Amino acid sequence: MTIFRWIIGIFTLLLAAGGLLAFVIFVLSGTEEWLDLARRFRRWVFAAVLFWFNIEIWGSILRTLIHW
Predict the structure, then answer these.
(1) At 68, is the secondary structure helix, strand, or coil?
(2) I need a labelling partner for 33 at 20 to 30 A (CA). Which of 9, 23, 26, 56 fits?
(3) Predicted TM-score (pTM) above 0.90
(4) Can you tell me the distance from the alpha carbon of 25 to that of 17, in angstroms, rounded to the nearest whole number?
Protein backbone atom coordinates (compact mmCIF):
# COMPACT_ATOMS: atom_id res chain seq x y z
CA MET A 1 0.00 0.00 0.00
CA THR A 2 2.91 2.35 0.59
CA ILE A 3 3.88 2.31 -3.08
CA PHE A 4 0.26 2.98 -4.06
CA ARG A 5 0.10 5.93 -1.65
CA TRP A 6 3.27 7.44 -3.12
CA ILE A 7 2.09 6.96 -6.70
CA ILE A 8 -1.36 8.45 -6.09
CA GLY A 9 0.19 11.27 -4.02
CA ILE A 10 2.64 12.25 -6.74
CA PHE A 11 -0.08 11.95 -9.39
CA THR A 12 -2.41 14.17 -7.34
CA LEU A 13 0.31 16.75 -6.69
CA LEU A 14 1.15 16.94 -10.40
CA LEU A 15 -2.51 17.44 -11.26
CA ALA A 16 -2.90 20.09 -8.55
CA ALA A 17 0.23 21.89 -9.78
CA GLY A 18 -1.12 21.85 -13.33
CA GLY A 19 -4.43 23.25 -12.12
CA LEU A 20 -2.73 25.97 -10.13
CA LEU A 21 -0.53 26.92 -13.07
CA ALA A 22 -3.54 27.03 -15.41
CA PHE A 23 -5.42 29.21 -12.92
CA VAL A 24 -2.49 31.62 -12.56
CA ILE A 25 -2.23 31.90 -16.34
CA PHE A 26 -6.00 32.56 -16.47
CA VAL A 27 -5.69 35.33 -13.88
CA LEU A 28 -2.81 36.93 -15.78
CA SER A 29 -4.28 36.59 -19.27
CA GLY A 30 -8.04 36.51 -18.71
CA THR A 31 -8.51 33.78 -21.33
CA GLU A 32 -11.42 31.48 -20.50
CA GLU A 33 -9.72 28.38 -21.94
CA TRP A 34 -7.22 28.42 -19.09
CA LEU A 35 -10.04 28.57 -16.55
CA ASP A 36 -11.68 25.55 -18.20
CA LEU A 37 -8.38 23.69 -18.06
CA ALA A 38 -7.94 24.57 -14.37
CA ARG A 39 -11.44 23.24 -13.66
CA ARG A 40 -10.65 20.00 -15.51
CA PHE A 41 -7.49 19.57 -13.45
CA ARG A 42 -9.49 20.19 -10.26
CA ARG A 43 -12.00 17.51 -11.23
CA TRP A 44 -9.19 15.02 -11.87
CA VAL A 45 -7.65 15.86 -8.49
CA PHE A 46 -10.97 15.15 -6.77
CA ALA A 47 -11.32 11.89 -8.71
CA ALA A 48 -7.80 10.80 -7.73
CA VAL A 49 -8.39 11.58 -4.06
CA LEU A 50 -11.72 9.73 -4.05
CA PHE A 51 -10.06 6.76 -5.78
CA TRP A 52 -7.33 6.72 -3.11
CA PHE A 53 -9.92 6.93 -0.32
CA ASN A 54 -11.95 4.09 -1.84
CA ILE A 55 -8.89 1.83 -2.15
CA GLU A 56 -7.85 2.62 1.44
CA ILE A 57 -11.29 1.79 2.84
CA TRP A 58 -11.75 -1.43 0.86
CA GLY A 59 -8.17 -2.48 1.62
CA SER A 60 -8.88 -2.02 5.31
CA ILE A 61 -12.08 -4.05 5.02
CA LEU A 62 -10.29 -6.87 3.20
CA ARG A 63 -7.45 -6.93 5.74
CA THR A 64 -10.01 -7.15 8.55
CA LEU A 65 -11.89 -9.99 6.87
CA ILE A 66 -8.72 -11.94 6.07
CA HIS A 67 -7.24 -11.59 9.58
CA TRP A 68 -10.51 -12.04 11.46
Answers:
(1) coil
(2) 9
(3) no
(4) 12
